[in-house]
Specification:
By secondary structure, the chain is of the alpha+beta class. The protein folds into five domains: 103 residues, no CATH class; 185 residues, von Willebrand factor, type A domain (Rossmann fold, 3-Layer(aba) Sandwich), CATH 3.40.50.410; 102 residues, Immunoglobulins (Immunoglobulin-like); 222 residues, Class I glutamine amidotransferase (GATase) domain (Rossmann fold, 3-Layer(aba) Sandwich), CATH 3.40.50; 70 residues, Immunoglobulin-like (Sandwich). It contains 13 helices and 38 strands. The strands form nine sheets. A nine-stranded mixed β-sheet has the order 17-16-18-19-28-27-26-22-23. β6, α6 and β7 form a beta-alpha-beta unit.
């Protein structure tokens, strides 16, 4: 306990006045012999004891009143154990953490969003709590935190201006990432007294990274370096919200010849069922389809559309609710943009190790049938060729090369394949009975064309055959097969394989990736990125000699997905989340030329392309603006579209109590203050800084004690 006005403690000496009065008023005993008093002797003894008790009781009560009054005027302050109390003249460095993630756009009944209330509360902190001589830093909290004011600024008005200009983003929330940035700023600050003010909606999903092993030391260090005041801007109660998740295509290869299925999961994060919800599909700004769905409480439903693109090229689209602004109070996730690259056809060169045999008996038969399964319009144009003599072909005329039975290759052919892949081509390798694993390893691995070393061929008994494991899929090109109801790959049995041992590329540890595994955990498809091209190798053949997969309906979809993925060449991904990075590949004529970037809100910027060994590239990072970003380079007539979507985790508005979360992560309870809303922020800050003053309770206690003293004095005096 400390005292705000300790000089009033000198008034404690006044507590001796009642004692002095009591002692002075004590009468001296005079013995008078009187025979009549002998009869009252016993009665006087009892009365004398009663009077003494009453006098001592009044004495104690009066001394207590004086003591309490002195304490009240001295303004005592209570503090938690271990919490240092600031003096009134202490200077502090305050780090303000402002959550600007997508969920902060939720609009309450008063018409204000969580973000607007958080900004107003932080502004109140800067204008009414921090004093001249204090310094402040400002961080925007999301899964990509940004320091608007990093170094401690004594210009609080500047910090207020930066705060007012802060904008809501479409990013997710990651409290741990922000805590790491806060610790960096705190350790660089030379101000002894440090405070952190955290304004957030306390979203539950923001603590997911808190489960990581390095989270506790980070939060413990923050609690050691500063006081933490957490301000929750989310009002109590259940928040209803429905969201459109990022659309997906029914197949990777989209052409102007075949109708395309476009789907999006519509998720209901509330406890109320929503029936007959209307969804719209827009393509290039025009209506292209409508469907109705029923959303169960805390459940989801898939909105499906089928459309035919009439023109090849890049097309932008959007899936949204009917009247999105009236669906719920979080408008940001009521629609979702996407970009589709539509092609005329993909040209594929099929290298057949059994070119001399009839096509029906060759290794390439099932592959070519899968690429062109019917008599109608086709998306893939195939050319069959022998596995040798590649150096005499113009490989650049083909988007993908498929080797149906990789075998011995000449040095000239290897060099041609290497140059083809490095320049952005796609190569798909299947083993066959003619494959010599050791020979393939010795020829293709030094050229950088082998994602995994081939082991010797292994034959399994029928009762020990293995299958593909859809649960092991870890690649966007195969996401379609995660849902077995759409296309089931797990029914095909594999009896013969060449087990794969993925290669570790020292220059780029992420260059090699296992796309899907067998049921025994061994790799089934392995990808390797080579410069701006890709190579995929399979562990089993593309014919029925080794497995049943070519006889299954899913084989056609699998081949189309792999061909389309490899056929993208150097083109970029077109659908990103905020903060994701991609490298765009431009024509050589665009080298070191300014590239124009137009963002969804109409603002624009320029960025120079980079000439590297792999070609002309433009590193692009998806910003916080959701929508379609257009990228153009006028000299080479290059044009690309990027759709920036929303983080689906942000749509779940469930909140958690930050107090238990933070104490469990190592923030000392004595250094933590949780303000349940912005209204009691000033009181919370005052208590965390200066402790809790108790003079008001002392005054309220004095009033009944004074009344009691008056009543007892009157009663005892009347009886005396």
């Amino acid at each position: 306990m400390i005292f705000q006005t300790p000089w009033f403690l000198s008034a404690l000496t006044l507590a001796s006045i009642p004692l002095l009065i009591h002692l002075l008023r004590r009468r001296k005993v005079v013995v008078v012999q009187w025979a009549a008093m002998e009869f009252l002797k016993n009665s006087l003894k009892r009365e004398r004891k009663r009077l003494r008790v009453e006098e001592l009781l009044l004495l104690a009560l009066r001394m207590l009143i004086v003591l309490l009054a002195a304490f009240a005027f001295a303004r005592p302050v209570l503090r938690a154990v271990g919490l240092p109390i600031l003096s009134r003249g202490s200077r502090v460095h305050a780090v303000i953490v402002l959550d600007n993630s997508m969920s902060m756009g939720f609009r309450e009944l008063d018409g204000k969003t969580d973000f607007e209330r958080a900004k107003a509360s932080a502004d109140q902190l800067l204008s009414h709590v921090l004093q001249p001589g204090d310094s402040a830093s400002l961080i925007l909290l999301s899964d990509h935190p940004v320091a608007l004011v990093a170094s401690p600024s004594f210009d609080l008005e500047l910090v207020r201006q930066r705060l007012k200009s802060a904008k809501l983003s479409s990013n997710g929330t990651d409290n741990l990432a922000a805590a790491q940035m806060v610790n960096t700023l705190l350790k660089a600050s030379k101000t002894p007294e440090k405070e952190v003010y955290w304004f957030s909606d306390s979203q539950q999903s923001a603590w997911e990274n808190g489960k990581l092993g390095n989270a506790k030391p980070i939060w413990s260090e923050l609690g050691r370096l500063a006081r933490l005041t957490w301000v929750s801007v989310q009002e109590p109660g259940v928040r209803e919200n429905v969201a459109v998740e990022q659309p997906v295509l029914g197949r990777e290869l989209v052409t102007s010849q075949i109708p395309t299925r476009i789907e999006s999961i519509i998720r209901n994060h509330g406890g109320k069922r929503k029936a007959d919800v209307t969804m719209h599909l827009l393509l290039d700004g025009k209506p292209a389809g409508t469907t109705r769905i029923n959303l169960p409480a805390n459940g989801s439903e898939t909105a499906r559309f089928v459309t035919l693109f009439t023109q090849p090229g890049l097309h932008s689209g959007k899936i949204e609710f009917d009247s999105p602004e009236q669906v719920d109070a979080l408008l940001a996730d009521n629609s979702q943009p996407f970009v589709v690259q539509v092609r005329e056809k993909i040209k594929v060169l099929v290298l057949d190790s059994t070119i001399d045999s009839d096509i029906e008996h060759s290794e390439a038969f099932y592959l070519m049938t899968a690429m062109a399964p019917g008599e109608g319009a086709q998306s893939i144009a195939t050319t069959r060729h022998a596995a040798s003599g590649l150096s005499k072909l113009s490989l650049s005329d083909f988007e993908v090369i498929v080797a149906a039975g990789v075998s011995k290759t000449s040095p000239d052919d290897i060099q041609s394949l290497k140059q083809y892949v490095q320049e952005g081509g796609g190569l798909l390798l299947f083993p066959s009975a003619a494959t010599n694993s050791e020979l393939v390893n010795s020829e293709l691995e030094p050229a950088g064309l082998l994602p995994a070393r081939l082991r010797n061929k292994r034959t399994l008994p029928e009762d020990q055959s293995i299958t593909l494991d859809p649960a092991s899929i870890d690649h966007p090109a195969l996401n379609l097969f995660k849902d077995a109801t759409q296309s089931d790959l797990s029914s095909a049995r594999f009896n013969i394989t060449t087990p794969l041992l993925p290669i570790v590329v020292a220059e780029d540890p992420n260059a090699v990736h296992t796309m899907i595994k067998f049921s025994n955990g061994e790799p089934a498809l392995v990808e390797r990125k080579v410069e701006i091209g890709k190579v995929i190798i399979a562990a089993s053949s593309a014919s029925t000699a080794w497995n049943q997969l070519p006889l299954k309906p899913g084989f056609v979809s699998l081949v189309h997905q792999l061909i389309s993925y490899l056929g993208q060449g150097a083109s970029a991904r077109h659908n990103l989340l905020p903060g994701e990075m991609v490298s765009l590949h431009l024509p050589i004529t665009a080298a070191r030329k300014p590239v124009h970037i137009t963002y969804p809100d109409g603002t624009s910027a320029q960025q120079n392309s980079v000439l590297e060994s792999g070609g002309v590239t433009l590193p692009f990072t998806a910003g916080t603006q959701v929508g379609i970003t257009k990228i153009q380079e006028p000299v080479s007539h290059f044009e690309d579209l990027i759709a920036v979507g929303r983080n689906s985790n942000e749509s779940d508005l469930a909140s958690s109590d930050p107090g238990p979360e933070l104490t469990a992560l190592g923030v000392p309870a004595a250094h933590l203050t949780v303000a349940k809303d912005t209204a009691n922020l000033l009181d919370s800050v005052h208590r965390s800084r200066f402790g809790s003053e108790i003079w008001r309770p002392l005054i309220w206690l004095l009033i009944p004690l004074l009344l009691l003293e008056s009543l007892l004095a009157q009663r005892f005096g009347r009886r005396g």
